[in-house]
Give the backbone structure.
Amino acid sequence: MKPTDDRTVDCPHRVACGACSFLLQPYGAQLERKRQRLFDVLGETLRLDRRQVLPTVPSPRVQGYRNRAKMTISSDRERTSSLGYFQRKSRTVVDAPDCGVLIPELLETTRQFRRLLNESRKFPFNLRHIDLRCGTEATRQHLTLVIKAGTTPRLPIEEIAEACPHLVGIGINLNPKGGAQVIKGPIEPVFGAREIHVESAGMSLRVSPGSFFQVNLGLLPEIHSRMGEFFGKGDLLIDLYAGVGTHGLALRRLFRRVLCVEGVRSSVADARASIKIGKVTNVEILADPIHRTLRRLAEEKPDAVILNPSAVGADQPALQGVIASTARSVAYLSCDPATLGRDLAMLIEGGFNLVSVQAVDMMPQTRQVESLALLRR
């Protein structure tokens, strides 16, 4: 489906689930709505010329794009289990055997797991969530079983592996308190591989179950191309909130040095493993939260900075550090327009100009607005 295509798609779970609220809308209209949403939200804090808000970058796929399925399990008194998502603004679990945004091979595995869940009596009642993901190879998948308990119960691991042939690894996460954060603490490997791999910019990136990674791999080349064209070549690039090094490693050939800053241990381990396997010599990983690395960063003289924080946005000291640095260019990849507007206002007040901002349709059919802002001193 092309961005201007007037065709629409639907899902049998659309009404009950509600997550994909843009279903039945032409894709071109979805892209324009996200551009308008970005303009409206940023306009609350910034004085924007509409020409600064570029057209939304379309997803190569509008269905079957999502490489991660985080699903909740709900069982009734007869032990019949549903595997799906919380209904919008509710704790009711909607069974979702036909979720159209999942990569087909992932969806196939969720169906196989659901069948086993309802056929076997070996699953404990406190198995509450699964976290299933794949990398570039859709048939190489990792499954994390999330247990609401402090100790690991008996689980039919061999039966799961046999019923779900695309699984190359299984891990267990104990989350006794539950809550909004599905995975807390370590993930214990119990079968096969401990991670998946994503091919990006000539490298194989290792991604562990506890590490963040974008759910739509098809957009990474476009994002990196736009960043690279904006930055040009330079001496030092600093990648803040670097995760497994996705963006810094993709732009490594444009800079003499790349410095990635990340505080999540699993992401740091993944980035270092990828660097070692890829024999990359010009990328360094600082394994600390940003507030602990500000002194080191103040000693560096970057030409460019990448910011890719979570939905809460960037830390104020980190933004102050960027403003005080020698960086002339900043690329800010955001998953929340509200916190993006707040942070852009601070960078602009500190001497940067907003060159452009545009939505990046990381999650077609949903209201989610991800965006890429480019700023120059």
Notes: The two ends are 39 Å apart (CA to CA). The longest helix spans residues 27-43. Residues 127 and 147 are 5 Å apart (CA to CA). The chain has a mean pLDDT of 95.
